[in-house]
Amino acid sequence: MALLEIRNLAVEFATARGRFRAVDGVDVTIDEGEILCVVGESGSGKSVSMLAVMGLIAWPGRVTADVMRFAGTDLLGLPSRQRRKLVGKDMAMVFQEPMSSLNPCYPVGWQIAEALRAHNAVAKPKVRDRVVELLDQVGIPAPASRMGAFPHQLSGGMNQRVMIAMAIACNPRLLIADEPTTALDVTIQKQILDLLISLQKQGGMALALITHDMGVVAETAQRVQVMYAGQMVEEQLTDSLFSAPRHPYTAALLDALPERAMGRARLPTIPGVVPGIDDRPSGCLFNPRCRFVQERCLTTPPQLEGPAGARARCHTPLDAAGQPTGVAA
């Protein structure tokens, strides 16, 4: 049985123009101990999907799904008090911006201890020792003295390590990391990624890593879900996705990698932007930017189809040579 199972997830927000569906029909499955990468451009719905899993979509947002189950527990029908017992304990999240996620008014040690106290993770006399142990585990030097530091007294990389310490404090079964390296220097980015993978292996927890960096995907993921404009457009094992992407959007993302553009005069790009509330095309949402667009792509929305573990939302998914199937030459 999967640790996390979600079917047909949708997230809507009320706007002046009516309800806008930011996430539409997304399926997510994560097994115990698995590393799943969710990849896509900014605005593709990656973060919103995972915030919905954590129960962090506030009104006027609305979350619906056919199935939303964690470790056999139905999250949709779970009372808020019971949901709070799961969040931070069995499932935790590292947010994108540590400086906006940590409370500037409290020392970082107090904030980590709060997570331990909220879930009765350790006996009260041992809370301080556990906080020091966690800070040391995530690579913060002189952890005992850093407990009393406020977020503004630490670097961005240190604050992100504090966020990770807080997330793993109760030994969660599922850790969601939302672009944990976005605001960090390149050298610090690798340290944070290595730390997450090390912690995942040590604790055997499942890791859902949200990113737009295909290099990170190649180094970390066992399986990849690609999102575009609120929809999942492809799902594959990592090696298969990099060797033979089935959706034109995935292929375009891979073509834009610098290492694949060696010898070219210019780095390939994807024209246009992810459509918003005012410019949603009919048919396939990717059709204005797709080099393989066909007539039916302009009128008929494609479905997510294909064998298990190799699905694509495309009328003419790409073959091993990178050419659309079912199209006359």
Automatic annotation (TrEMBL):
SUPFAM superfamilies: P-loop containing nucleoside triphosphate hydrolases (SSF52540). GO terms for molecular function: ATP binding; ATP hydrolysis activity. The keyword Transport applies. PROSITE patterns: ABC_TRANSPORTER_2. Gene3D superfamilies: P-loop containing nucleotide triphosphate hydrolases. It is a peripheral membrane protein. It is found in: Cell inner membrane. CDD domains: ABC_NikE_OppD_transporters. One of its GO terms (cellular component) is plasma membrane. GO terms for biological process: peptide transport; transmembrane transport. Belongs to the ABC transporter superfamily. PANTHER family: DIPEPTIDE TRANSPORT ATP-BINDING PROTEIN DPPD, OLIGOPEPTIDE TRANSPORT ATP-BINDING PROTEIN APPD. This is ATP-binding cassette domain-containing protein. It comes from Limobrevibacterium gyesilva.
